[in-house]
Design goal:
The protein has about 280 residues and is α/β, with parallel strands linked by helices. Helix content is about 30%, strand content about 30%. It binds adenosine-5'-diphosphate and magnesium ion (MG). Magnesium ion binds near residues 71, 72, 116 and 199.
């Protein structure tokens, strides 16, 4: 079977012609991100034990689980951290298997990871970091400072940030809220097709939470094809972002997938209710 990409207005929305003996012509839209029966080991211990989900273009899925359930393991595996070994299963971006791809390749193909604990990089300003990351994402070796600045002016304003912030060294001395806003700023500028946000809401007070929640909605409004996997163990952020689907992760397995009724069930009975379902 020969496959040819015929349009990619948004890399998350590829349309493919599948041609078989020149007879069949099908238009297929694959999910932005698909995880198939993923098993992952860290330092020899199996942490993820069969995770499957499909995130459509433009959708928001919430992945909820208690501490230690494997949420960050999934996030780091998705971005290709070599410490996390895929022992079976696969990861597909817009229908293409990226399980064996490097982090750089995944990022260039439109995957973005917002870290639970963003690294501090002394000596590298937010501006310079973004300039390099944007150049890599766009496949351009040298992106003009002006172009980056224009985008930064637009987005720092939309996200209610002081533009001088971009002169500071990446995450150095940033408050919890500033770090998380900076992750949203990166997401806005890198124009990903799939964003995995790992506890972007953790450690935020209620005002910062609102700013981050609304910021994510602004980025979505500007990029309708963006699919978001929102990893969290609190429901509060979901006041600002309504997920299309909710998945509950327990001990490295998705034990329930459904609508926002799962969030309500969590509110009343906690994760233990799902533990019992799993045991039954
Ligand atoms: P969560 O993000 O849901 O709190 P994690 O994915 O961070 O959970 O952790 C799940 C399990 O995997 C924990 O038992 C943790 O100790 C283990 N784990 C995760 N990353 C590593 C690592 N780099 N080295 C050793 N163990 C790890
Ligand atoms: Mg975590």
């Amino acid at each position: 079977m020969r496959r040819k990409a015929t349009s990619a207005n948004c890399a998350g929305f590829p349309s493919f012609h599948y041609r078989d003996s020149g007879i069949t012509l099908d238009l297929v839209t694959a999910p932005a991100l698909e995880i198939r029966d993923l098993h992952v080991a860290v330092e020899g211990a199996e942490i993820l034990r069969g995770v499957s989900l499909a995130l459509g273009a433009g959708e928001v899925h919430a992945l909820m689980g208690p501490n230690g359930s494997g949420k960050s393991t999934l996030a780091k595996t998705l971005l290709g951290d070599p410490a996390y070994v895929v022992t079976s299963g696969s990861i597909l971006l817009a229908g293409e298997d990226v399980t064996a791809c490097s982090t750089d390749e995944r990022a260039a193909r439109g995957m973005f990871l917002g870290f639970q604990h963003p690294a501090e990089i002394p000596g590298v300003s937010v501006l310079n970091f973004l300039r390099q990351a944007m150049a890599a994402r766009k496949g351009i070796s040298d992106l003009s400072v002006l172009e980056v600045r224009m985008a930064l002016i637009e987005w720092t304003e939309k996200l209610g940030m002081d533009e001088r912030f971009t002169q500071r060294y990446l995450n150095e001395g940033f408050s919890g809220g500033e770090k998380k806003r900076n992750e949203i700023l990166q997401m806005a500028l890198l124009e990903p097709d799939v964003a995995i946000l790992d506890e972007t809401d953790s450690g935020l007070d209620i005002d910062a939470l609102r700013v981050v929640g609304e910021g994510i909605e602004r980025v979505r409004a500007a990029r309708s094809c963006l699919g978001i996997l929102l990893i969290t163990h609190y429901r509060k952020i979901l006041d600002y972002l309504t997920p299309d689907r909710v998945h509950i992760l327990l001990d490295g397995r998705v034990v329930a997938s459904g609508g926002t009724e799962l969030v309500d069930a969590l509110e009343t009975s906690g994760f233990d209710a799902f533990r019992e379902t799993q045991a039954a």
